[in-house]
Amino acid sequence: MAWTWLHKLASPPHAYRIAGRLAPWFGWPAGILLVAGLYGGLVLAPPDYQQGEGFRILYVHAPSAWMSMLVYGTMATAAAIGLVWRIKLAHAVAAASAPIGAWFTFAALATGSLWGKPMWGTWWVWDARLTSELVLLFLYFGYLALRASIDDRERADRASAVLAVVGVVNLPIIHYSVNWWNTLHQASTLTKLGKPSIAGEMLWPLLAMILAFTLYYGAVMLVRLRAEILCRERDASWLRGELAS
Amino acid sequence: MQVHNFPGLFCDGVQLWRGDRHVLRGVSCALRAGEVLHVAGGNGAGKTTLLRVCAGLLTPEQGSVRWGSAPIAADRDAYVRAMTFLAHSDGLKAEFSARENLAYDAGLKQALASGAIDSAIARVGLGAAGDLPARALSAGQRRRLALARVLLAGAALWILDEPFTNLDAAGVEFVAEAIAVQAEAGGAVLFAAHQAPAIPRRAAQRLDLA
Amino acid sequence: MPRSTASAMLLVYRRDLLIAFRHWDQVAQPVVFFAMVTTLFPLAISPELGELRAIAGGVLWVAALLAALLGLEFLFRSDHADGTLEQMLLSGHPAALLALAKGAAHWSACGLPLVLVSPLLAMSLGVPAQALCTVALSLLLGTGILSALGAIGAALTLGLRRGSTLLSLLVLPLVMPALIFGARAVDLAIHGEPATGPLLLLAAMLIFVVTLAPLAVAAALRISVE
To answer: What is the DSSP letter of A50?
Structure first.
């Protein structure tokens, strides 16, 4: 029955082994797609008629921003599953994903800032997208800080799960408010770090990069998940057998 | 005298970890109407943890706690109304007087007449100190006040964590008698203590968590 | 005779107000903090009312938010420490509704004074008389939103060391939308324009948050009490 398969998957020894076997299947395609996407974006694609060469940073900025939100959503979903059905593995997935998402957010901010410098001459601008990413970074920090302050692992799992769910519900509200706030003040209408109107040869490297980043997240998350399982199950007998072999 | 309808409390193979510590290792027990169960064990043996699991505050990782035939998680609110839990801490607001404490705490579960509150205070021997703020009471007096709350609730099941702490000999006798009366009325008492006095007129079962 | 949930909520509300009155010094702290922070800005920027008026909406709102955050500590901390919170969770009433009652009492004691003091502080920042009503109204809604969201943070950080700093960290990103609309409402009013748009959005946010936050608070309380 489907449930037994799911329960089997959620048991730490199985999850540990499956994660180990799956990770290369995410990692290698990610690497290949990354190289292809970067080559396509940095070398093959023609310069944008509006922004010249500077737009190329889009190929790192847009996937990072996309991933920062995807990972938060994944983290919140895993946390909710762990909270409602009391599945420890789900909490481990959330814990493994959070730092990755935070780094993606930071990368989105950094690349956004780098993009801003040649475009508008400043390292930072209160653009709707960047401000949203900044608030998302704060949400990640809050999650990580809460996890770190609670010593009891179960309580840390469950408390941070509640926080993740509350955060994900608020995320659309924050996004909408920041967008609205941004439109109020004329000065910032210049800043649109969105995708420029995109021609075919510019598009496929972007899609490749997005897919590459997603697979990269999968690979890294699986590796971190194994580390989380090791940490949580360090006294379990199955682990001793596993490590001995 | 009040007669209770208590379907029985049963623990089946309760397992619980606190962080890395395996605190409860497959604990099973049965408590039926009219019985008293004394959970014994040294410090850190898991007495408080077991009581909190039975009170529904903690969820065991494996095993279950049944009230009658259904697990307590199935209808937690109904279970909680039929049960009173006395925790390690007294559960008293320092700035409230004894009367106010009972009115706002025991009063949450049921509408209390002020006569009932006064008589409960008198029963536990705090008649003179009824209007003092709880912070002005001694540790033993505070424990008595916490017990007054248990008496007022009139629940079928009592779960008491260290009910004899801080009490003088008269107090200990009083609690033992109250436990006996509760059992005689068809209720049940589950309590944890390092050492406990004999319960008058019945033999308490004993569960050793070591 | 068992008590109905509505009557229990009222009891909890009265109880918490009574406790707040017995610790009026704790209740006064956020108000004093609000006044002090508002004073920092003229000192830091300029005594010119014209300049202050331009930033008054933002200053009042930020100061009120920080002051309200300060007061959030008192929501569950003492009940958790003396064990009464646990007893409330074992009273057989839905924890979410009791949390709502506690939150309402806390807002009445800590948030409402901020709202009452805000017109005075607004005047000190050069806000014209026509806008004072909007200031108070926007903060009425805003402190309510903050109380509700802050209760989630307070419940999650119960008993943790340096919990209050962590509380601010967790709650501030969640209240940023309210800040955006609230400060905007005050700004519009200062310039004589109708502020109904942002105020209605604030009201909608308040309803949304007050409906859903108690559920999160109840979940967080059960977790923290384990």
So the answer is: T
